[in-house]
Amino acid sequence: MGLQKDTDVDRKQHGKWYDDACGAAFAMELIGERWALPVIRELMLGGRRFSDIRASLPGISAKVLTERLASLEAVGIVTRTTLPAPTPAKLYVLTPWGLALEPVMQELGRWSVQSPEHDPQLPLTPVSLMLSFRTMLDRDAARGMEATVRFEVGADRFDAELSGAELRIMRAPPERAAADLVFRAAKGIAYLRAFYGKQPLDAPGLALEVEGARALAERFIACFHLPAKRPPPPDKQA
Q1: Which residues form the HTH hxlR-type domain (predicted)?
Q2: How far is CA 232 from CA 116, 117, 118, 126, 184, in A?
Q3: Given this structure, which CATH class describes domain 120-221?
């Protein structure tokens, strides 16, 4: 009887969609609502203001963003904090449990881009681009390589360190610290063409600026690959 009572109480949250004890199904109840994963993604490299999140996700309305942040906060994935003076601002931040979603999202990313339906030409936010680098790093190719890297994507700045076949990335201040390589582009598409499309750095029309040794930049770029595409379903094959 006690088990039945506890289950009834828990259904206020758990089981609201599927009435199923499966952990994967419950995960979708927690993060499966429309826009929930993109919101989590935009917080993965640090806390952000409401206005910053909405600017990164122009397709989301203020109402929906408010609802998603509230629901993610209610289940313990997101929390709020306030920056100290002189520029106090309310930030939304992932909790440690929320940050633990990164490996899950990486596996989803590696799995999903194998679909022939995935379009890499669609817009990609700067944070999403940085997380893609962490996801698509070929650790065998990166083994033994060490480099500090500055990524500039429009007004966004990120500092990265490649060491021990791991790529650590964090948001950076506008003033630039010393780095072995600096990559600069107005939009993420230029990075995609070089890092995943493997266009040469001197290819005509490639709007990606590079500072640093060309050989090091080429070796660094060679450490990133998208998984091979799966063949399309038989009814879509030419």
Answers
A1: 22-120
A2: 6, 8, 11, 30, 35
A3: alpha beta
Q: CB-side exposure of 138: number of CA atoms within 13 Å?
A: 13
Q: State the chain's mean pLDDT as an integer.
A: 90
Please give the CATH number for the structural domain made up of 12-100.
Answer: 1.10.10.10
pLDDT, residue 12, reads 59
CB 152 within 8 A of CB 184: yes
Q: What percent of the chain has a predicted confidence (pLDDT) above 90?
A: 79
Separation of CA 40 from chain center: 8
Identify the CA nearest to 37 among candidates 106, 123, 136, 91: 106
- Average pLDDT for residues 20-41, to the nearest whole number? 94
pTM (2 d.p.):
0.88
Cβ neighbors of 147 (< 8 A, separation 6 or more) are: 161, 162, 180, 181, 216, 220
Report how far residue 203's alpha carbon sits from residue 107's, in angstroms, rounded to the nearest whole number. Answer: 32
pLDDT of residue 50: 96
Domain boundaries, the chain: 12-100, 120-221
Question: Residue 83's pLDDT is what?
Answer: 79
